[in-house]
Design a protein that fits this description.
The chain has 327 residues and is an alpha/beta fold. The protein has a domain at 128-326: 3-Layer(aba) Sandwich (Rossmann fold), CATH 3.40.50. The chain is built from 13 helices and 5 strands. The protein has a 5-stranded parallel β-sheet with strand order 2-3-4-1-5, with helices on both faces. Helix 2 packs antiparallel against helix 3 (68-87). The longest helix is centred in the first third of the chain and has 32 residues, at 5-36. It binds zinc ion. Zinc ion binds next to loops.
């Protein structure tokens, strides 16, 4: 489960590929422009010759050189280039380098040496075998969310509303969760019967947050407990397992899908408590999707877990028929 040196190298190679690609694309655009607008070529030559001239002056002079005139002239030339590009219908940044990730310029690291979110997500993808999630999220996202699967007539006695009314409210809360993700700490407990769309909704949120450069780990409860067991039972042998589990505390959003489908025992009860508790302490959001009502959560897990969830999570009950049959 740990990332091998080969996988780390593969991440580095991917960054090199991206840098090379943007460099090549830039060269192509430069070539194209020098054919289409030769005047820009002339300006570029003027910029480099006047920079050389300025450097020569500085080196030869004993007194500090006044460079105000030089900077003014360069600014004038840069503005002229931008005006020419615009005149010919090109965007102002056409001759700048364009990176896949503008935050880190495809290096994987930010200026303070911290890992960029794109690198964290690349590690997560390898560590948690999430390569399939991208395909799922291509389909399961808010653009494809469809209210037509929810009954608009039958009033649910517990909630005193129709499944359609309910899902509209749940939908708005999820949108709000995304909108305020960086400012308002919140967790979601999405529960309801099988097939009402809990996982689908969690996937929609995952997609929206990944698109806005957040690191997201998506795990079924069974996989989560396998990882936690690896970490706890291999503690002495390897720090690699610690590294894997580190992402579980560190990622921007952790999604635990289908909680309650695993066999619960003393290990799962204490591991879940620890995992949820660590994230509450570091104020890192979690989304749980489950068939377990709060009452069943207590019997399946513990009073302690129940109270952590009640105190820190928004409860979103989804009602309705099995969508997978309607679809
Ligand atoms: Zn980046």
């Amino acid at each position: 489960m740990a990332l091998t040196q080969f996988q780390y190298d593969e991440i580095e190679r991917e960054y090199s590929r991206r840098q090379l690609k943007s460099q090549r694309e830039l060269s192509k655009r430069i070539d194209y422009i020098s054919k289409t607008i030769p005047e820009i070529d002339r300006i570029n030559r003027e910029i480099s010759s006047s920079s050389l001239e300025q450097a020569r002056k500085i080196l030869q002079s004993d007194t500090p050189e006044d460079s105000t005139e030089y900077h003014k002239n360069i600014q004038k030339l840069i503005k002229k280039k931008a005006a020419l590009l615009k005149e010919h219908g090109f965007p102002a940044d056409y001759l700048n380098i364009h990176h896949t990730c503008e935050k880190c310029a495809d290096t994987g690291y930010l200026s303070n040496n911290e890992k960029c979110v794109c690198r964290k997500q690349a590690e997560i993808k390898l560590l948690y075998s999430q390569s399939n999630i991208e395909n799922i999220l291509e389909v399961e996202n808010f653009d494809n969310f469809n209210f037509k699967y929810f009954d608009s007539e039958t009033i649910n006695k517990d909630l005193n509303k129709t499944p359609l009314q309910n899902i509209h409210e749940v939908y708005d809360i999820c949108q709000d969760f995304i909108k305020k993700f960086d400012t308002d700490y919140a967790n979601l407990y999405i529960y309801g019967n099988t097939g009402v769309g809990k996982t689908y909704l969690a996937n929609c949120i995952a997609k929206a947050l990944m698109d806005s450069s957040h690191s997201v780990i998506y795990l079924s409860a069974i996989n989560l407990f396998n990882i936690l067991a690896d970490r706890d039972f291999n503690r002495a042998q390897s720090h690699e397992y610690q590294h894997i589990a580190h992402h579980l505390t560190d990622c921007d959003l952790l999604i635990i899908d289908d909680l309650g489908t695993e066999l619960s025992n003393t290990f799962t009860v204490s591991a879940l408590f620890q995992c949820l508790n660590e994230r509450i302490i570091s104020r890192k959001p979690v989304i749980i999707s489950t068939n377990l009502s709060l009452h069943n959560l207590q019997t399946h897990y513990s009073e302690r877990i129940l109270s952590r969830i009640v105190d820190n999570y928004k409860m979103l009950k989804i009602i309705g028929n099995d969508i997978r049959i309607n679809r």
